[in-house]
Each structure stands twice: as C-alpha cells, then as structure tokens.
Design a protein that fits this description.
The chain is mostly helical. Helix content is 51%, strand content 10%. It contains 14 helices and 14 strands. It has helices at 39-49, 58-69, 87-100, 104-128, 134-154, 162-182, 193-196, 224-234, 240-245, 287-312, 332-363, 368-377, 398-407, 418-437, and strands at residues 20-22, 28-30, 71-72, 80-81, 198-202, 218-222, 246-247, 252-253, 259-261, 266-268, 273-275, 280-282, 381-383, 388-390. The strands form seven sheets. A two-stranded antiparallel ribbon has the order 1-2. Strands 3-4 form a two-stranded antiparallel sheet. A two-stranded antiparallel sheet has the order 5-6. A hairpin with a 4-residue loop joins strand 7 (246-247) and strand 8. Helix 5 crosses helix 11. 23% of the residues are buried.
Length: 438
C-alpha cells in the first residue's frame, strides 16, 4: 500500500525542521525521501524499456518531480528548493576547462563550442520568455573558479606578489558588492494609491433603482480597470500616448520611457533591457550600478589575465602571449592556467562589447529597448552597423545626457499619470453635462 505524505496545515509550516519541506502537493516531506513515490519516473522508464511511446506530459511531470525534490537543508523554514539551472555551470565549466588543457586542439574545440553552447541556451530560453539562473550561476562560478585557480595555481609559482594578489582580491570583492547592489531594485512601477481608487459622483439615476433618498446621486468606487472599461462604454477617446502607456498586465499607467518586462512580469522605470547575467532588469534605479559592475569586472579580469600570462609565458610579450606561448602545454598546471586565461578573454570580450554599447546609448540618451524599437520601425539614425543609434527624442547633448544619467536615480517617484487624472475629470464633466441636458 502506498504511503502518502501528510497534509501540512498553514499554521504548522513554520515548524518544519531543516530537512523537511512542503512539496508541490502541499504535503510534508523529507529530503531523504527524494527517491520515494516516483510513479512518473517509473512509468517513463518502463515505457522506455518496453519501447513504447512516451506520454506527452511524461517529461514535464518528471522534470517537476526532480525540481521539487532537489532541496538544500536550511535552518529556517525547512529545506530550500534548488533551481536546476544552477547546477550545469558548476559541473560543465571545470570539466570542459580541464579537458581543454590536455591538448591545444582540444582547447580550440572546447573554447569554440562553449560560447556557442551558451548562445544556443540563451536563444532557447529567450524564446520561451522564462527566467533562468543558468547565466547568473555561470557568471558567479566563472569569477569564483578563476580566482580559485589564480590562488592555487599561479600564486605558488612565486611570480605574483602579495600586492598583486591584494589588488585582484579587492577587485573581486568590489565586483560582487556592485552586483548585489545592482540586483536590489531596478525601479519597478508601482500604482499610486491616491489614483488607484477614487469616488466619482454620478447625477443620473439607474432605471431599476430608486435613488430619491440620496437626492438622485450614486457614489461609485472605481479602480483603474473599471475606469478604462467605463471610458469605453461612455465612448470617450483616450490619447494615443495614454493607450500605449497603459499596461494591462500590471494594471498601471507607465510613465514615459517605462516598459514591461515579460520575463520578470513587472513594469520598470526607464527600462533598458533584461540582463540574463544578473537575472534582473536594468532600469532607472540600478542602471548606474550595472555600469559600475561591468567596469569593475573588466578591470579585475584584464589585470588577472595579464598576471597569469606573465606567469606562464614570461618570455613573451603580453599582447602576443595568447597567440604564441611555446612550451605552455608541457606541464598540465601551466596549460590549465593558459586555457583559463583564454576563457577569461572570451568572457571579457563579450562584456566589453556590452559596456561599449551601454556607454554609447547613455551618450545619446537612448535605452537598449528604445534603440531596438527605433531600428525596427526605422525611426532613428544608425551608424557603425547599428552600434550607434540616435533617436533624437530625449538627447540633451553629451554632457546633458550624462548629467541626467548620473542623477536619474534620485527621481524614482514620478508624478501621477495625467492620463488617469484627465480620465476622472472627463467622467465627472460628462455625467454632469448629461444631467443638465436632461
């Protein structure tokens, strides 16, 4: 007889021990029981062994079971769920780098296939508009693993002094601090409580109710959605800009330059783009710290790469050591450091391109979202294969654009949308005119 887990009342959820958790069915379970009650997995394996076709929902059910049962013991609130997308970088990156260090031909194959694999996974998840921790895990583990190899492989050679190690350590710490600050808040558009609810007085009575005790009045409390619906019923036309700024998902009126992120599911002030490397949006509140994070990472990475190349290729010039370093594959430790230096160069090159695009966009006061929209609609001037995009809408000159960028974090409380205020006023005027005409 199959033993089912017990249902957990809501008031007892806080009494879970460090290895217990509430599964997707709302039942109490234990991390040690991860292999119990695996009917979906047993059915899929049985069909595979019998060479029978799988059910359409079999793979999704097995994935749900795995993702729900992979937990980490936690002292508060029971075992915590682990996102499956975090695990592949922790396994694949060390394995591929160690394989690439065996021979230079393997290094060429691995270092060529690894960026292609990451790009394929990016476009695969980008089409589904789903959130994933794969890229954030890859970025953090790459930074941590490169620093670990720097300490364990390069430092013991004696070619790097304590000052250089201190500089690299401080750079890594500052990069992590800037990343944490970037992930705090992108600047989410929140509804103004003063304009979410309002009382509108109508002086026209409904035919099926006697409103004489109230003097022919009816007080109606409305929300933003009701306002939009009543505007359509009354036949009043919104301004085109107000219609574009209204978000039906978040049910808020977006300020100018704000946008809705389909991955995060929120509207963000001055939305630039959704960055998969930080698993968050880049908006008005964290755009500056995002640039600081890129700059700190690039400086730390370039300095670390130069120290590694000077250690494994002391007789070569710094700029030619990556292309020609004789004898680097004679020892496995030097080959591993050389391979990691190449990997770091590939990552640094990608982030350098991102930083250049960001600096150009800030100089022209254009967000990445606005640049893509303008290029698609052919309403902007572009140069250098689309690297420079000038819409000419918000530009205030080079100094003015950078001054606005450096101070935009202080303007996180925009005034209420005039479209909503005008709508309420129009509703009141329209109802009063109807009453007077009658």
């Amino acid at each position: 007889m199959k033993k089912r887990a017990t249902k957990v009342p809501e008031e007892e959820e806080e009494a879970l021990c460090c290895c217990e958790y509430v599964n997707r069915f709302g039942e109490r379970s234990h991390v040690a029981a991860c292999c119990c009650d695996c009917e979906d997995l047993d059915d899929a394996c049985d069909r595979f062994l019998k060479r029978e076709p799988q059910k359409p929902e079999s793979l999704s059910k097995v994935t749900e079971v795995f993702s729900d049962r992979i937990r980490v013991p936690w002292f508060w609130g029971g075992a915590r769920k682990v996102d499956l997308s975090v695990i592949p970088p922790l396994i694949l990156l060390p394995v591929l780098l160690h394989v690439a260090a065996l021979h230079f031909l393997l290094g060429i194959v691995v270092l060529t296939a690894l960026p292609g694999l990451v790009l394929w996974y990016y476009y695969f998840t980008h089409r589904k508009k789903g959130r994933t921790l794969f890229f954030l895990s890859l970025a953090l583990f790459s930074l941590g693993y490169m620093y670990y190899l720097f300490i364990t492989e390069v430092l013991p050679t004696g070619d790097v002094g304590p000052v250089q190690v201190t500089v690299v350590t401080v750079g890594v710490i500052l990069t992590l601090v800037a990343l944490v600050n970037t992930k705090r808040e992108p600047g989410i558009v929140r509804p103004n409580q003063d304009s979410v609810h309002s009382t509108v007085t109508y002086y026209s009575s409904l035919p099926d109710r006697d409103l004489a005790p109230h003097g022919g009045r009816q007080d109606v409390t409305m929300t933003l959605a009701n306002r939009a619906g009543s505007s359509e019923q009354e036949g009043m036309a919104f301004k085109e800009s107000s219609r574009r700024n209204w978000c039906p998902v978040c049910r808020v009126a977006r300020p100018p330059r704000a946008g809705h992120c389909r991955i995060c599911g929120v509207c963000v002030l001055r939305l630039d783009h959704h960055c998969v490397w930080i698993n968050s949006c880049v908006g008005q509140a964290n755009h500056r710290s995002f640039l600081v994070t890129l700059v700190l990472f690039l400086l730390t990475s370039l300095y670390g790469i130069s120290l590694v190349l000077q250690s494994v290729c002391p007789n070569q010039h710094l700029f030619t050591a990556l292309l020609y370093c004789p004898g680097v594959y004679n020892q496995y430790s030097t080959a591993l450091c050389f391979t990691c230096a190449w990997y770091s160069c590939i990552v640094t090159g990608g982030l350098l391109h991102l930083l250049v695009v960001q600096v150009i966009n800030v100089s022209y006061n254009v967000t990445e979202r606005e640049a893509r929209t303008a290029l698609r609609d052919k309403t902007a001037r572009s140069a250098y294969w689309g690297l420079v995009v000038d819409t000419g809408v918000y530009s205030k000159g080079f100094r003015g654009n950078w001054a606005e960028f450096m101070t935009m974090g202080e303007k996180l409380n925009p005034p209420p949308s005039p479209a909503l205020t005008d709508l309420v006023a129009l509703l009141g005027v329209n109802t009063q005119e109807k009453c007077e005409n009658k």
